[in-house]
Amino acid sequence: MFELFAAHTLWAVLFSVILALLVGSFLNVVIFRLPVMMEREWQAAIQADNNQLDTNKHETQVLEEKFNLAFPASRCNSCGHQIRWYENIPVISWIVLKGRCSQCKTSISARYPLIEALSGALCGIIAWQYGFTTTGFALMLLTWALIALTFIDVDHQLLPDSITLPLLWLGLLLNSFEIFTTLESAVWGAILGYLALWSVYWAFKLLTGKEGMGYGDFKLLAALGAWGGAISLPMIILFSSVAGVLLAGILIALRKHNAANPLPFGPYLAIAGWCAMLWGEPLMRWYLGG
Q: pLDDT, tens digit, for every residue of 52-78?
């Protein structure tokens, strides 16, 4: 099978797209449930610290409210109908069901199939460019992590450590074999990536007394620096900043956003980082006019 994929790019692309569609379905679960899991952990920690519950009662409550990426099974938010396997086929099931629950006919957000399709499309591009290789599969892992981080940040202005930190360590591990860059460049990329936004954060806070971004942004840029190396950071910072300013300006002009409310910066970092990993050199030559 590996020989077939190596010899025929179209087969590699087809397999990658199907795999990515399935993973995209799981990403929808991660995007919805991970913030809820984190909130429950915080609440449990606060209750334990304040001694609001006795030990037995606390343990009983935690067991009764078991909630993770695998349990409970996916259900309709309106009627509680448990989604069957054939109602959970990426993209196809949503189209067949006409975007509605099979039981109560409540509308199902189009974002679910869009995330699945986005995962499939981006991984298809990676497979077309890199084939069925270690580099290609590594970039797919990066893509899935960035998709999850992007939509969690859009929904909650939160970039979970449970994704950003493993992403950072994976980048360093891969580059210890010089998959994308040298280990030295990866280490400096992680260090400088974190310090770059950390410095901006503190400069902005000292000047305005407000917080312009969160620590999750520092960690995400550090992770991207660990993947692409220090040389990738200027382009990622530039492109993400330009995209952020343009979108904020458009939203403010359309009165869809209040300038006093911050926009999540993680999605722009994710998009710029993904583009830098795939097309860093051509983009830099284009930007420099060469």
A: 555 454 444 444 467 888 888 888 888
What's residue 63's pLDDT? Answer: 43
pLDDT > 80? residue 288: no
Angle between helices 183-208 and 161-175 (to 10 degrees): 150
Q: Is the peptide bond before 160 cis (omega within 30 degrees of 0)?
A: no
Residue 15 amino acid letter: F
Residue 157 token pair? 């202005």
The tally of CA atoms less than 13 A away on the side-chain side of residue 123 is 31
**Radius of gyration over alpha carbons of the chain, in Å?**
21
Q: Which residues contact 116 (CB under 8 A, 6 or more apart)?
A: 21, 24, 25, 27, 28, 90, 91
Helix (H, G, I), strand (E, B) or coil at 75: strand
Burial 157-188 (b: 16+ CB within 10 A, else e): bbbbeebbeebbebbbebbeeebbbebebbbb
**Cα(226)–Cα(53) distance, integer angstroms:** 43
Q: How many CA atoms lie within 13 A of 231 on its CB side?
A: 11
Phi, psi for residue 265 in degrees, rounded to 5: -95, -15
SS (H, E, C) 13-52: HHHHHHHHHHHHHHHHHHHHHHHHHHHHHHHHHHHHHCCC
Segment 93-102 shows an average pLDDT of 92
Indicate the pTM of the whole model: 0.90
> Which of the two residues, 65 and 30, has the higher pLDDT score?
30
- Render pLDDT for 245-258 as a digit per residue (tens, 0 to 9): 887 777 667 666 66
Q: Report residue 10 CA to chain centroid gap.
A: 27
Computed from CA positions of residues 75, 76, 81, 87, in that sequence, does the dihedral angle turn out positive or negative? Answer: negative
